[in-house]
Amino acid sequence: MAILVGLVAVLSALFAAALRRLLISCRHPAYAAGFFHPYTNDGGGGERVLWCAVRAVQELCPDLPCAVYTGDADAAPEALAARALDRFGVRLLRPPQVVHLNKRKWIEASTYPHFTMIGQSLGSVYLAWEALTKFTPQFYFDTSGYAFAYPLARLFGCKVICYTHYPTISSDMVERVKHRSSMYNNNSLIAGRYALLRVISFNSSYRALVY
């Protein structure tokens, strides 16, 4: 079993290397910083992190264009800059470029009645694929905690920088699964079934390790 796991790991690494070469040969990342933040109107601490990060990059690298990936259809450069100032007191040196995402539903909890965290993790990779095919920056900033998209960004030739304000999975979440506690990301029907619980507990622990 261990040999098979090792073989799969080696083959996966070789496939990733080949895919990365293919993507880099077909696409050259733009000299820019892209901020992956699908929800730019949540008003919480994560959004403040986004605007502080954009401001910091603008100050450190004045000639580096900044783009924000967002699923908010009404987001516009000037409106986002005004929101950063009005809501958080962060004055951007210039409005960011906006890259609109149409597939944000794939990271929303409501899309996955069961196995929510698995679905959201895979959905984040799909959403990041949309983002990076629309605009591939040299520097990929994640300010929302979608860590499963980082390998994809590397395959696109980006340098990945992240600040995880709200982790996708935490030790508290894993403990809730083990103790059969029902919550928005741990369905009560599944939490009450021991066999399913064992599978999910293993999956949660494995995902936490990968994360």
From TrEMBL:
<dbReference type="Pfam" id="PF15924">
    <property type="entry name" value="ALG11_N"/>
</dbReference>
<protein>
    <submittedName>
        <fullName>GDP-Man:Man(3)GlcNAc(2)-PP-Dol alpha-12-mannosyltransferase</fullName>
    </submittedName>
</protein>
<keyword id="KW-0328">Glycosyltransferase</keyword>
<dbReference type="InterPro" id="IPR038013">
    <property type="entry name" value="ALG11"/>
</dbReference>
<dbReference type="InterPro" id="IPR031814">
    <property type="entry name" value="ALG11_N"/>
</dbReference>
<dbReference type="GO" id="GO:0004377">
    <property type="term" value="F:GDP-Man:Man(3)GlcNAc(2)-PP-Dol alpha-1,2-mannosyltransferase activity"/>
</dbReference>
<dbReference type="GO" id="GO:0005789">
    <property type="term" value="C:endoplasmic reticulum membrane"/>
</dbReference>
<keyword id="KW-0808">Transferase</keyword>
<keyword id="KW-0256">Endoplasmic reticulum</keyword>
<feature type="domain" description="ALG11 mannosyltransferase N-terminal">
    <location>
        <begin position="32"/>
        <end position="194"/>
    </location>
</feature>
